[in-house]
Design goal:
With 568 residues, the protein is an alpha/beta fold. It has 22 helices and 14 strands. It folds into 3 domains: 4-84, Gyrase A, domain 2 (2-Layer Sandwich), CATH 3.30.1360; 119-261 and 305-370, HUPs (Rossmann fold); 384-560, Orthogonal Bundle (Isoleucyl-tRNA Synthetase, Domain 1), CATH 1.10.730.10. The protein has helices at 4-13, 20-26, 43-49, 53-63, 86-100, 130-148, 164-176, 186-203, 205-219, 223-247, 264-274, 307-322, 336-345, 353-357, 384-402, 409-426, 438-441, 449-466, 483-493, 495-505, 509-528, 536-560; strands spanning 38-41, 70-76, 79-84, 114-118, 152-159, 253-256, 277-280, 283-287, 295-299, 326-332, 359-364, 367-369, 372-373, 434-436. The longest helix is centred in the middle third of the chain and has 25 residues, at 223-247. The radius of gyration is 28 Å and the shape is globular. The two termini are 34 Å apart.
Length: 568
């Protein structure tokens, strides 16, 4: 497909001493179409050329010649504005979609590179609540988009299956296990035990000491503690699998912190040999104070490991197993210091430099209730399964009111309900905090997942009314030069740039916002143009454009984890 930005960059590069790629990074899309399709800000050259931006723009305009791809060049202050050939734009976009279909926008940019994406990572023996939902949805979207862009992508679920909390749960089970029916409702019952023992720990320090001792015994391989831990883990995985199935989320590797038990000692040995490990009040630490990163504890005073130890062991394992170029950790921003510390300490491990540099923390905002912060210790959480089922049920009610005769109501309600929840988590910049409110999450009006699905269904309806999809060779591009058609085509053209932008910034909301824009431009096109027309040539062109929009909406939505319904 023709890259108009590259063409413009090459023309400018011939006249100034700048790299083509650097020039391309400066090129902008003007805020309105009257100012052109692309704009080059000449103030970027002002310091080098020692001239005012308007003067530079005027001189460049005199030197750069328009061609078949660029209709004309205009000056607006210090900007050089380029107007591209709209017929060539339409032809390159629709022809490419004709050739690639659902792979339109896919790339080989990641060929030969490996990206690991760690996401979801819930704690076993605890409910899968909406705090876990964001990492699961964000990570799954990044996983799919990286794969679509040609990367060898590995999705990792790093289960929280070790730590003092399990010492607490074991202690609670020892005391009151016979009071709870673990077999019938395992997660609910384990949660009750956890809340109860946590409350007791607040009242009695000796109980907390007993919990810590349980965890030490677990690490040492105590038979009773290990048997209980394995039982807690098994029942948790069964619940998680049910939720992942609802969301359509899969992983290539599911390994908990406990999986690295045999290599924690090696990490400690390597750090000791590096001379970076010191002792502080019986604990072993790496002092990062001189870098403004505090102190990274490696082992506690009783010899037990902590998150940092286990994460470092996991990094070492992943580097040796996958030789990754990037390893993304999709974890809330509250853990920012933790990751700054372990990424720094990882530089002292025996792993390749590219793996050290490839460690990235993809931070996202916290989810809070309208009543404040969630806490499993306090028992005030919203479970993901409840949220998804509630969303599906609300869609069912809407269907019964508006379209009771719809085919496959259950299946379509599931796609719409879950799509609404997923899109709600991805439609804004992920670093922003979210206040959980049922009315917001399940709002199907405005810029939502159901809106994108509705526009997709509308494109399908157009094709059904037409009864056919013309071949690209049958489409007269000159009949798609009206304002509404061109806005749709321009949006379609942006798709691969949007995907590249997503992985450059690890920000799936860029794709979510793009899909809203594309859906909106098609809605305007649909409202302003008669698609099923007496003139077969006009109909061919508009039906084909509808097909192209439906294809890209479906592909983009699937990369976010959203299935498209057939009816709404």
């Amino acid at each position: 497909m023709i890259n108009f930005k590259s063409i413009i960059s090459e023309k400018i590069a011939k006249e100034v001493e700048l790299d083509v790629k650097e020039i391309e990074s400066y090129i902008e899309i003007p805020p309105n179409e009257e100012m052109g399709d692309y704009a080059f800000p000449c103030f970027k050259l002002a310091k080098t050329l020692r001239k005012a931006p308007p003067v530079i723009a005027s001189e460049l305009k005199e030197k750069i010649v328009a061609d078949e791809n660029i209709e004309r060049i205009e000056i607006a202050g210090g900007y050089l504005n380029f107007y591209i050939n709209k017929q060539i734009l339409a032809k390159t976009v629709l022809e490419e979609i004709s050739k690639t279909q659902e792979n339109y926008g896919a790339s080989k940019v990641g060929e030969g590179k490996t990206v690991l994406v760690e996401y979801s990572s819930p704690n076993i023996a605890k409910p899968f609540h909406i705090g876990h939902l964001r990492t699961t949805i964000i990570g799954a979207a990044l996983y799919k988009i990286y794969k679509f862009m040609g990367y060898n992508t590995v999705g990792i679920n790093h289960l929280g299956d070790y730590g003092t909390q399990f010492g607490k749960l074991i202690e609670g089970y020892k005391r009151w296990g016979n009071e709870y029916n673990i077999d019938e409702n395992p997660i609910e019952e384990l949660m009750k035990i956890y809340i109860r023992i946590n409350d007791l720990c607040k009242e009695d320090e000796s109980v907390l000491d007993a919990c810590r001792e349980n965890f030490r015994l677990l690490e040492a391989g105590d038979a009773y503690c290990t048997e209980l831990w394995e039982r807690f883990r098994d029942v948790s995985l069964q619940e998680f699998d049910r939720i992942y199935k609802l969301l359509g989320v899969k992983f290539d590797s599911i390994k908990g912190e406990a999986s690295y038990a045999n290599s924690w000692g090696e990490v400690v040995d390597i750090l000791e040999k590096s001379g970076k490990l010191t002792e502080s009040e019986g604990a072993k630490i790496v002092d990062l104070e001189d870098q403004g990163k505090g102190v990274c504890m490696i082992t506690k005073s009783n010899g037990s490991t902590i998150y940092a130890t286990r994460d470092l062991a996991a990094i070492r394992y992943r580097a040796k197993t996958y030789d990754f170029d990037k390893c993304l950790y999709v974890v809330a921003y509250e853990q920012a210091l933790h990751f700054r510390q372990i990424f720094e300490v990882a530089k002292y491990l025996d792993i390749p430099e590219k793996c050290q540099k490839g460690l990235e923390h993809v931070q996202y905002g916290m989810v809070r209730l309208t009543t404040g912060k969630m806490s499993t210790r306090e028992g005030n959480v919203v479970k993901v399964e409840d949220l998804l089922n509630e969303s599906i049920d609300r869609v069912k009610q809407i269907i019964e009111e508006k379209n009771p005769d719809m085919e496959n109501k259950e299946e379509e309600a599931k796609k719409i309900g879950i799509g609404a929840v997923i899109f709600n988590n991805l439609c804004t910049t992920i670093i922003k905090d979210q206040v959980f409110d049922w009315n917001t999450v399940l709002n199907f009006n405005g810029e939502t997942g159901p809106y994108i699905q509705y526009i997709y269904v509308r494109t399908k309806s157009v094709l059904e009314k037409a009864g056919y999809v013309p071949n690209f060779e049958e489409v007269d591009i000159s009949l798609l030069q009206d304002k509404q058609s061109l806005n749709v085509i321009k949006n379609l053209y942006k798709f691969d740039d949007v995907l590249q932008n997503v992985i450059d910034k690890n920000e799936p909301s860029i794709l979510a916002r793009y899909l809203i824009d594309l859906a909106g431009s098609y809605s305007n096109f649909y409202n302003e143009n008669k698609i099923i027309d007496e003139d077969k040539n006009i109909q061919n062109a508009r039906v084909y454009l509808s097909k192209a929009v439906g294809t890209v909406l479906k592909t983009g939505a699937s990369l976010l984890g959203i299935d498209m319904p057939n009816r709404m």
